[in-house]
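Per your request, structure below.
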């Protein structure tokens, strides 16, 4: 069975909307393709290296904080980067970001760390400012569905 791991920091209703849309896209993709897919979600402050090693692909979600990704997602990377470096290369991932004042630093940080890990981007990131619109939620849904479907083909 393929396993998608969602690593997210969700501190507010707007980030919760994005998380729920991405999760729904991933779960629905597995159901519609009639293949077994386990979608595991972990708060970024709780994810372990074992969770990351046990997954086949990743969906990351975070707000921008102080010009970077959230401290929670950075903590997650700090926790699993070296333990997973040798074993997770070439695995697919996607990410969504929410911010209200500029998300460039967060985007740069995620790109740099995932490049270091050797992960392969399976879909364009979804980046939202302010209240997520219907389109934004649909983009999150598609992000989840695309990363999940890539694990099943
Ligand atoms: C301490 C702190 C720092 C933040 N720094 C940034 C930032 O650098 N760039 C940005 O776009 N938003 C920043 N924000 C806004 C958060 O990204 C935003 O609160 C989060 O995405 C949730 O969105 P919401 O408050 O509209 O629900 C910051 C928020 C906090 C609490």
């Amino acid at each position: 069975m393929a396993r998608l791991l969602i690593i997210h920091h969700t501190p507010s209703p707007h980030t919760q909307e994005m998380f729920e849309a991405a999760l729904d896209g991933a779960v629905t993709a597995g159901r519609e393709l009639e293949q077994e897919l386990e979608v595991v979600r972990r708060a970024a402050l709780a994810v372990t290296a074992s969770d990351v090693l046990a997954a086949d692909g990743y969906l990351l979600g975070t707000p921008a904080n102080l010009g970077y990704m959230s401290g929670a997602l950075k903590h997650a990377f700090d926790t699993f980067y070296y333990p997973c470096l040798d074993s997770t290369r070439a695995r697919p991932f996607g990410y969504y970001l929410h911010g209200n004042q500029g998300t460039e630093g967060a985007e740069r940080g995620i790109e740099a760390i995932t490049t270091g890990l050797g992960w392969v981007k399976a879909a364009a990131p979804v980046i939202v400012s302010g209240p997520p619109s219907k389109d934004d939620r649909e983009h999150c849904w598609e992000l989840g569905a695309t990363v999940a479907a890539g694990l099943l083909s």
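The mean pLDDT is 96.

Regards,
D.
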